[in-house]
């Protein structure tokens, strides 16, 4: 998979891809992540990429021309499955979306700023709009990093144990069951006996029951 991120703050996106699982996925050649500074695609003085909105009102708006130039340049090299705009009013990211996007080959992610982008960008270029929650950030970079992490960890070969992702919270619309490790008893707190029994069919049934119970108690909306 190749992910191209269009941003006005490329330095903000360095750290997430220079550590842990994402770094390992890039080093293995499983995924490519490239950032593109939108200011490199403007001819205006001071590398301007935003302007006042027509009709008045507070806040600046990202202009269509530099975004058009950047997307057009990227599309000359390859076809893209999705061109995503990170925006608070997009569809809320969930595990189902991450699962489906992990199967794509080439993706562009546009990070919004200020009051957003000229609506013509959304009408002409964007194929999907995604939000990471009902709140506003100062820019779309952190949301883009969250989206990339959610997608990349699902790609075969990224996780050391590929079955791990299949038992994550939200897979099958259930919360994950509780997990324990050594020691079996700590300050009077004991690991459930069933997990020490070695009876794997019963352990699996216990985990299924726990996942169901936790979901009903903590996130009943997932079961609707």
From TrEMBL:
This is tRNA (guanine-N(1)-)-methyltransferase. It catalyses: guanosine(37) in tRNA + S-adenosyl-L-methionine = N(1)-methylguanosine(37) in tRNA + S-adenosyl-L-homocysteine + H(+). Residues 1-224 form the tRNA methyltransferase TRMD/TRM10-type domain. HAMAP family: TrmD (MF_00605). InterPro entries: Alpha/beta_knot_MTases, tRNA_m1G_MeTrfase_C_sf, tRNA_m1G_MeTrfase_TrmD, tRNA_m1G_MTases_N, tRNA_MeTrfase_TRMD/TRM10. The keyword tRNA processing applies. The keyword Cytoplasm applies. GO terms for cellular component: cytosol. It is found in: Cytoplasm. SUPFAM superfamilies: alpha/beta knot. S-adenosyl-L-methionine binds at residues 112, 132-137.
């Amino acid at each position: 998979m190749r992910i191209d991120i269009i941003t006005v703050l490329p330095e903000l996106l360095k750290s997430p891809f220079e550590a842990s699982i994402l770094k390992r996925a890039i080093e293995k050649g499983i995924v490519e992540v490239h950032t593109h500074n939108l200011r490199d695609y403007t001819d205006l003085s001071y590398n301007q990429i935003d302007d006042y909105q027509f009709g008045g009102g507070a806040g600046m708006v990202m202009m269509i021309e530099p975004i058009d130039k950047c997307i057009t340049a990227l599309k000359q090299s390859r076809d893209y499955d999705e061109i995503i705009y990170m925006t608070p009013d997009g569809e809320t990211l969930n595990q189902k979306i991450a699962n489906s996007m992990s199967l794509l080959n080439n993706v562009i992610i546009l990070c919004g700023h200020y009051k957003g982008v000229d609506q013509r960008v959304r009408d002409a270029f964007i194929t999907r709009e995604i939000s990471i929650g009902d709140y506003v950030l100062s820019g779309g970079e952190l949301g883009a990093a969250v989206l990339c992490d959610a997608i990349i960890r699902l790609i075969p070969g990224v996780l050391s144990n590929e079955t791990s992702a299949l038992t994550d919270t939200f897979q099958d619309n259930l919360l994950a069951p509780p997990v324990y490790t050594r020691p079996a008893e700590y300050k009077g707190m004991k690991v459930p006996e069933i997990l020490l029994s070695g009876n794997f069919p019963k352990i699996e049934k216990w985990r299924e029951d726990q996942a169901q119970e936790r979901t009903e108690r903590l996130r009943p909306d997932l079961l609707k």
